[in-house]
Amino acid sequence: MQEAEDDEHCAVWACNVDEWKKRVVRRVPQLGKIVKAKNSKSDTEFSYLRKLKGKKGIWPVNPFRLNERLHAQQGVFLMPLDVSRSFMENLRDLGTPTIGRKHLWKINLSCNKTFRKECLAELQRMNIQNQTLFRGLDGLARDLENRMLTPELFKGIEPKL
Question: Domains of the chain: which residue ranges?
Fold first, then answer.
């Protein structure tokens, strides 16, 4: 969003991964058993997912090892089960549009300088910034670059160092 041109549209997607997981487990009960097994490792789950044939859906996965950046962002990756189909086809196959609207949200944003400034200020107050999302010198450099190239967006926003 911070790189968006004025009046360019951006989108943020959010989903209730627990609901989508339940829907997949209903179709693939063995997957539910693997996930519930106390001694199950994520590589067992991932191996099973890769072998699924003809099943559509999405499944949240994390890499086997988290680096600082992934740990700070606290996100998950959504993996399509049928890689021969698009992500949206995999998602649509799990439910009706009504169900999708309850558990998947696309937030459309129209960007302009005022809106970006307000968003960046709010994110800064929550300590969500390049420096915290992208740990190390990379994040610091991105933060400094933003502040130098668009100082008008950061007036009145104090950095939390």
Answer: 11-108, 113-153
Beta bridge partners of 110: 9
Nearest CA among 150, 143, 61, 158 for reference residue 111: 150
Whole-prediction pTM: 0.60
Percent of residues in the chain assigned helix, strand, coil, to nearest 5? 50, 15, 35
CB atoms under 10 Å from CB of 6, counted, come to 11
- pLDDT, one tens digit per residue, over 81-118 is 888 889 888 888 877 666 667 888 888 887 777 787 77
Radius of gyration of the chain (CA): 20
The answer to whether the beta carbons of residues 80 and 42 sit under 8 Å apart is no
Residues 6+ apart with CB under 8 A from 82: 52, 54, 55, 56, 57, 89, 90
